[in-house]
Amino acid sequence: MSFLQARFLLGSPHPPSAQWPLWHSILFQPGEVMMAFPLTMNPATATGAQHPRHDRVRAQVLGDAAPGGHEWATLQWVTAEVARLLHLPVVTPGSEVGYLVPDRTLTLAEAARLGIQDSDDLLGGVVPHAFVGTKIISHGLVNEGATAPAGWQHALGHCMSPVTLPGYSAFSMDDALLAWELLAVDGPVRLKLPEGIGGHGQASVRDAAHLRSLLTQLAPASLHFAGVVLEREVQHPRTLSVGVVTCGRLEIAYCGIQHTVQDAQGNAVYGGSSLQVVRGGLETLLDAPLTLEQRRAVEQARGYEEAVTLAYPTWFASRRNYDAIIGEDLHGRPCSGILEQSWRVGGATPAELVALAAFAAEPELRAVQAGSVERRTLDPVPDDAQAYYAGVDPVQGPITKYRWLRPGWTDGH
């Protein structure tokens, strides 16, 4: 029986010494979810993340994450990590009280049923309509007469245009075909399902017939209620991550790069994130030594949030993550913009949590580097990393996930 060993320094990126938490090594078999914790922690400096309101933590599966799959297992692990960060116990699913860790963005109606009043009550977000939590709001409709769901704010698309790529959202076959026709004049077009995550639910559209074929594969109700996104396809793309997370008494902000890997079908999917993290919010992040590309991405994320708040002032979130793409159009001209938001637990959450733990342990710490890695194989993890999933997902096959923490701030490259 083969075993994997992971070692992880929690609380400070500095070398181990008497004043830093000790290394804690755990042996685990592939397929198990591994949790690690420091052998020692200074009580005087380890209370920064404690929650002023809640006395327990609970997970809530509302989406399609099936028990036994990597997403379900990761949510349970994240919930346990949040509980450890807040120094609180985890309660069984179904409990009506406690700090909530849901697997997707909640609607206001769902939040009310679950006892969520504001962003201090959950790791995630709450929106007035389900579609507001998806990438469908990143673009406007093809015209004012286009099909739209109840609650759609037509002015939002115009406000989003300075911080997103050229694109349209559509809720009917005719509107989608018109959107493709308008976009195809300037180059290739990408079709996206609003709730697709990690690179899934996307396709490059060859022509109108191909688009029609792709759309006919969707359930009519899905197109009508969830819609689709058609967007300018970027050449030589790179994706940055910008985010803000508040948990207990701590707030962090970050900017970093996303990585991709190939899944079993050869598709490019999410492979992890490498983040530059600061204590504080977006304004603090903008004071950090960002590159021009990073600064543009942070400002675009801030503009995206401001536009959403104008259109839907009742939304709130404690975890706000934005994917910003950088590349060129078909003619070689630079282009960039926010692709989508994530107001829920996501692929970068393990990295966010280890950064929060570092800041909780060391009040004087101002910046760290943190990352999460996802591999579509069962591989040993590096000695300076901590695995949080290693197993065979029933649908996606073998997957290994781990996170890491390193000192300070690099020059952004």
How does this model look, in words?
23% of the residues lie in helices and 31% in strands. By secondary structure, it is an alpha+beta fold. A hairpin with a 5-residue loop joins β12 and β13. α1 runs parallel beside α9, α3 runs antiparallel to α8 and α4 packs antiparallel against α5. The chain starts with a strand and ends in a 6-residue tail after the last strand.
Sum up the structure in keywords.
413 residues; eight-stranded antiparallel β-sheet; four-stranded antiparallel β-sheet; 31% strand
Offer a concise description of the structure.
The chain is of the alpha+beta class and 413 residues long. It has helices at residues 70-86, 108-113, 154-160, 173-184, 208-216, 220-225, 282-286, 292-311, 349-361, and strands at 4-8, 24-28, 57-60, 99-102, 106-107, 125-127, 167-170, 189-192, 202-205, 228-232, 235-247, 250-262, 268-279, 316-317, 319-328, 334-342, 367-375, 385-393, 397-407.
